[in-house]
Amino acid sequence: MFGKKWFQTLVAFVLIFALILLISKVNFLFSPIIKYVQAVAIPIVGAGVLFYLTKPILTFLEKYRVKRIFGILIIFLLLILVGILFVMFIVPIAQNQIHNIIANTPKMVQTVEHWINLLQSNQITIPPQVNDAINNFMSNIQSHVESIVGYVFNFISQLVSFVISLALIPFFLFFMLKDGDKLVPFITQIFKKEKADNIKSLLKKLNYTLAGFIQGQIIVSFILGVLLFIGYFAMGLDYSLTLALFAMVMNVIPFLGPFLAVIPAIIVALIQDPIMVVWVLIITVIAQQTESNLISPNVMGRVLSLHPLTVITVILAAGSIAGFLGILFAVPFYAALKTIIMHFYQTYQDSKDNKKDALI
After folding, report:
1. Are 217 and 114 found together in one domain?
2. Does 145 fall in a domain?
3. Within a domain: 12
4. Would you say residue 79 lies in a domain?
5. Alpha-carbon gap, residue 112 to 110, rounded angstroms
6. CA 76, CA 49: separation in Å to the nearest integer?
7. How far apart are CA 26 and CA 33, in angstroms?
8. Using one digit for the tens of pLDDT, what is the confidence trace for 117-140?
9. Residues 110 and 146 in one domain
10. Three-state DSSP state, 236
11. What angle do CA 83, 227, 60 make, to 5 degrees?
12. Residue 335 sits in which domain range?
């Protein structure tokens, strides 16, 4: 029985769960490590995203015999130039539109109340449960507004530490670009050649998966944002740039992001002119179809090979566990975990085939 595969698998699961239980009982030992990871998480993640976005540029420059240090300097100059252009041309327009949105918030609330009252006047078409929920929301709207204000102040208090973390991103990015190629040899130097080659293969696959996701998702989100801005601007929708920027950010979340992105545009269109809701939906469908059928297959390819139902399930589960951050990092984490599992499974299969060949 001890040599049976099912028994060994069962023992492995029992040991894993026992280890998890033991860690949960002594989690106070890991709290300093967790705090340290939380402190450096934003700089590392931010620098990692920029690393995968700028690494192709560095590789291109080195291909033409530009020294790495000068290539990194060129990349930083390009990033500074992009930042300056963004601050000069995009931020003032977005800031003005956000100010107008805040100024017109009372009008928006009145319009929403009007539509709710209009729906409530037709009691036949509204289920009692929905009607009770609407009445509960309207009676507690003041408390909801106060809660939002509390969230805003909490956000401002956290913004300071976030800005400090952002200031560390250039330092992390510099060393990632400069010494990133030394990481794999440093990790594998303590292993024998066969295991070292296996680890190198795994790290190469992980690098390919993360690069494909980050580069593809950023490019796809940018193109989709541009398409939506063109459509919103052409139809005369108010706050078109701000809504397109919001859609660009939300589209980073796979599958669910586009649905979240269109909600503010529908609300603005409903307040501006109800018929514009139809045009917003048409433009969104055209942009999404262009993205899903033309842009994503060519930009992201089949790097992730994830079924949409799997992605939605992972996002919902991660969101219930870790909130917005869980939603944001669920897909790359799952893709990396899948890559690791598939690699070790392939290694196991190769070892079995080698044993069979040896017996023959």
Report:
1. no
2. yes
3. no
4. yes
5. 5
6. 14
7. 13
8. 666 565 545 556 555 655 665 555
9. yes
10. coil
11. 50
12. 191-350
- Joined tokens for residue 242: 């701000």
Q: Which residue has the tokens 């950010």?
A: 249
- CB half-sphere exposure, 124, CA atoms < 13 A: 0
Give the angle 163-169-174 at the CA atoms, nearest 5°: 155
Angle at which helix 193-235 crosses helix 276-290, to 10 degrees, equals 150
Which is nearest to 295 in space by CA: 243, 241, 208, 225?
225
Residues 252 and 274 both lie in one domain: yes
Query: What are the helix and strand counts (H, E) for the chain?
Result: 15, 0
- Whole-number Cα distances in Å, 257 to 53, 217, 260, 301: 21, 11, 5, 19
Q: What is the pTM of this model?
A: 0.73
Using the 8-state DSSP alphabet, how is residue 124 labeled? T
- Using a CB cutoff of 8 Å and minimum separation of 24, what contacts does 116-123 make? none
Interval 268-309: pLDDT, tens: 888 888 888 889 889 888 887 777 666 565 555 455 666 667
Mean of per-residue pLDDT scores for the chain: 77
Distance CA 341, CA 330 (A): 16
Residue-wise pLDDT tens digits, 329-351: 888 888 888 888 888 888 878 77
Q: Is 345 helix (H, G, I), strand (E, B) or coil?
A: helix
The dihedral built from the CA positions of residue 151, 156, 159 and 161, taken in this order, carries a sign that is: negative
Residue that is last in its domain, among 147, 182, 217: 182
Same-domain check for residues 169 and 283 = no
Helix, coil or strand: residue 252: coil
Q: Write down the pLDDT at residue 94.
A: 79
- Domain end (from 160, 182, 204): 182
Q: What single string gives the DSSP state of each residue in 156-193?
A: HHHHHHHHHHHHTHHHHHHHHHHHGGGHHHHHHTTS-H
Residue 56 has pLDDT above 80, yes or no: yes
How many domains is the chain partitioned into structurally?
2
Cα–Cα–Cα angle for 341, 334, 293, rounded to 5 degrees: 115
CB-based contact 257:251 (threshold 8 Å): yes
**Overall average pLDDT of the 86-105 stretch:** 78
d(CA 216, CA 211): 8
Tokens coding 22: 């033991």
Q: Are 196 and 177 in the same domain? A: no
Contacts 24+ apart (CB under 8 A), 63-69: 68/177, 68/178, 69/178
